[in-house]
Design goal:
- The structure holds 2 protein chains of 2 kinds.
- In chain A, the strands form 3 sheets. A 7-stranded mixed β-barrel of chain A has the order 11-12-15-14-13-16-17. In chain A, strands 3, 4, 6, 7, 9 and 10 form a 6-stranded antiparallel sheet that branches. Chain A has a 4-stranded mixed sheet with strand order 5-2-1-8, with no helix packed on it.
- Chain A starts with 8 loop residues before the first strand and ends with a strand.
- Chain A contains no helices and 20 strands.
- Chain A has 2 domains: 107 residues, no CATH class; 127 residues, Immunoglobulin-like, CATH 2.60.40.
- In chain A, 37% of the residues are buried.
- Chain B is an alpha/beta fold.
- Chain B folds into 2 domains: 212 residues, Rossmann fold (3-Layer(aba) Sandwich), CATH 3.40.50.2000; 160 residues, Rossmann fold (3-Layer(aba) Sandwich).
- Chain B is 41% helix and 16% strand.
- Chain B has a 7-stranded parallel sheet, with helices on both faces. In chain B, strands 10-9-8-11-12-13 form a 6-stranded parallel sheet, sandwiched between helices.
- Chain B starts with a strand and ends with a helix.
- Classes of the chains: A mainly beta, B alpha/beta.
- The interface between A and B is medium-sized, with 20 and 22 residues.
């Protein structure tokens, strides 16, 4: 990681409630959050002690928000995000996540997710020819006909899902995902449809302190005929199954 | 006092740099302190320059600098003064020989402090008479090869003091080398109070941090953790760090994690800096090393209120941890013992909380202010003794240097002969 000095630095503390408090270098001015791929902006007043607070109730659209103080990018200081590590949000119809993180340039940004409902991936276990994903469903109640879907390039494979007391479990055989002809990598997105007539929900893992888990959550690779299959996460923490020839 | 530190490269990242910065910063509150970096390859020190300390460099390796020294003809010629036995020898040159020589000859300081064997040798050989000469050992005597130990045994006689980071290593210096009149003291490394509140012992995570190299024995930790998970599947392990020039165990560790089906429980996190916010995400820290010259990560975790389960390896851990009080010491290489010690803390919330509190209190003795006082007292005492009373009288220096020149010649012949033999073998 390279660090670019901009003169403004912020330490921050993230709470399980969603609140983030920032402490800026002296005289840095108000803190402005700008959505990277959009026009949205949010200005937070910086108090005389150099602190600015993003309240738990202030909604951030899903995406990456860059931080500025008087147009100057803010360098990432100490990030105390321990309360995010094993987060279990309360019941409510939506799940809001905001993780302060350092960009590759060492600048402070906030990764936000806003999901209603939300399917949180948990432990993965493996069989000889597939994997089982267990997780927790937030913001909706499962009904009859719940399925998980693997989607790639317009194709959808559905398998039965069990949902009991908000905990879902899906066993996904790799065979159909490695259908011939397979000449290049296929990345199957995993979705959960909680009931026959419900909208599908993307299965993701966002309830901890990791804004990008691609190199941290690494799973066993299974041989499927001449091909290989393994679950993985995207840069957006969405769960997929990667099948490679 | 005017205190001048000599550092290999103040612009990089490493334990010696960090601890020198901590020490220099505290000393600068009362003294005139400079850090002289042999090399400079970037504008700002990666770890941030210590406030109040003058920074200087001798060889400029910033490509865009008008004073860039990388093209200097002497930069490519192998060093003669810097000892070959020091692992950094390849980076030194005829140019560093000359620059260090000029710097040490004109030293305007009461105390000059070297921070690695090669630089301590430079100080012994080239520093003008007058300033107190202190050589710091940040590794251990044992960790050096035969050639460097021989050279240290010979050259360090011209230092006033050698400081080691453990009592164990100080004993090695006292008993294995003949350094009459050289004061040998152990002063541990310092670790500042963390920038985050201490851990509260409730998180069900074990944290480890260090280079992913063989000496850290993370394979042992993963195996031990398989036993932990069998009994307490609600606990998980994060290992922070990456490989270095001496190796990278990442792929081997991944394979081991897969073999034990621990992909939901053991995570290789990659490097993190600073580590404090990561330590406080856990309630227990684990160190499974074969060797720890000091055990910086043990002190760091303890300062965050996280109790450490560590192997009782040479040299540092047993001088930091009081077994059963503020952490646990277990035999080296014994996965069952690591697992048992982890489980004892995992299964007893009150014991874990108490041990963490004890670790927090006990580790205050490593605060930079308190460690700096010990260095300061040593420096002041040696300065007060005056040149005549120290071992560095002009006569002795002269005699030693004559003897040194004779030995130099002998060494040179011998090393050349050894090189020829080695080259012969390689063919």
């Amino acid at each position: 990681m390279t660090t670019t000095t901009t003169g403004v630095r912020a330490d921050c503390t993230a709470r399980a409630t969603g609140e983030i408090s920032f402490t800026l270098t002296d005289g840095a001015g108000d803190l402005v959050l700008k959505l990277r791929d959009g026009d949205e902006e949010l200005r937070l007043e910086t108090g005389p002690d150099g602190t600015a607070v993003l309240p738990a109730g202030t909604e951030l659209a899903e995406g990456r928000w860059d931080l500025f103080a008087d147009e100057r990018p803010v360098e990432a200081g100490i990030r105390d995000v321990r309360e995010l590590v094993d987060r279990r949000p309360g019941s409510g119809d939506r799940v809001a996540v905001r993780i302060p993180y350092p960009t590759a340039e060492g600048r402070l940004a906030v990764r936000a997710w806003l999901r209603a409902p939300h399917a949180e991936a948990g432990d993965l276990t493996f069989t000889e020819a597939g994997c089982t994903v267990e997780g927790r469903l937030y913001g909706t109640v499962a009904g009859p006909g719940a399925v998980a879907e693997a989607r790639h390039d317009g194709r959808v494979h559905s398998v039965e899902a069990t949902c009991i007391d908000g905990v879902f479990s899906v066993t996904l055989p790799y065979g159909p995902l490695a259908e011939e002809p397979l000449d290049r990598e296929r990345l199957w997105e995993l979705w959960l449809r909680p009931a026959e007539d419900a909208e599908s929900v993307r299965i993701s893992r966002i309830l901890d302190d990791l804004w990008d888990r691609r190199n941290v959550f690494v799973y066993p690779v299974t041989a499927v005929g001449d091909h290989r299959a393994t679950p993985c996460y995207t840069a957006d923490n969405d769960l997929c199954v990667r099948v490679t020839p | 006092m005017r205190i001048s530190f000599l550092l290999h490269n103040a612009y990089g990242i490493g334990g010696t740099i960090r601890t020198t910065f901590n020490l220099a910063q505290v000393l600068a509150e009362r003294h005139d302190v400079e850090i002289v970096s042999v090399f400079r390859h970037r504008e700002e020190p990666t770890l941030g320059a210590p406030p109040g300390v003058t920074m200087r460099h001798l060889v400029d390796l910033r490509k865009n600098s008008p004073d860039y020294d990388g093209d200097h003809p002497d930069y490519k010629k192998p060093a003669r003064v810097f000892p070959r036995g020091d692992g950094r020898w390849k980076q030194y040159s005829r140019l560093t020989d000359a620059r260090l020589g000029a710097h040490l000859k004109n030293l305007q300081a009461d105390v000059v402090v070297g921070t690695r064997p090669g630089l301590n040798v430079h100080i012994a050989r080239q520093a003008r008479r007058g300033p107190v000469r202190v050589g710091q050992e940040h590794l251990t005597l044992d960790s050096h090869g035969y050639r460097l130990r021989r050279e240290i045994g010979h050259r360090y006689a011209l230092l006033d003091a050698v400081t080691t980071v453990t009592e164990a290593d100080a004993r090695s210096y006292r008993t294995r080398l003949k350094l009459p009149g050289v004061r040998i003291d152990a002063v541990p490394n310092s670790v500042p109070a963390p920038s985050v509140p201490p851990a509260d012992s409730t998180a069900k995570w074990v944290v480890a941090a260090g280079r992913l190299t063989n000496v850290k024995r993370y394979d042992l930790l993963v195996k031990a953790f398989a036993q932990v998970v069998a009994e307490r599947p609600d606990w998980r392990l994060r290992i922070y760090g990456s490989g270095d020039a001496t190796g990278n165990e990442k792929n081997a560790l991944r394979a081991l994690i897969e073999l034990h089906r621990l992909h939901n429980h053991v995570f290789l996190m990659g490097p993190a800096n600073p580590l404090e916010p990561e330590w406080v995400k856990g309630s227990i820290a684990a160190v499974t090393s074969r060797i720890e010259s000091f055990g910086m990560t043990i002190v760091e975790a303890m300062r965050c209120g996280v109790p450490v389960v560590s192997t009782d390896c040479p040299h540092g851990p047993r001088e930091i941890i009081e077994d059963g009080v503020d952490g646990r010491l277990v035999p080296v290489g014994d996965a069952d013992a690591v697992a048992a010690a982890l489980l004892a803390l995992i299964n007893d919330d009150e014991l874990r909380r108490k041990t963490g509190q004890a670790a927090l209190a006990a580790s205050e003795r490593f605060d930079p202010a308190r460690i700096a006082e010990r260095h300061e007292a040593l420096f002041a005492e040696l300065v007060a003794q005056g040149e005549g009373a120290r071992s560095r009288g002009a006569l002795r220096d002269g005699l030693h240097r004559v003897r040194g020149a004779v030995l130099d010649a002998a060494y040179t012949v011998r090393y050349k002969a050894a090189d020829v033999l080695r080259k012969g073998k390689r063919k």
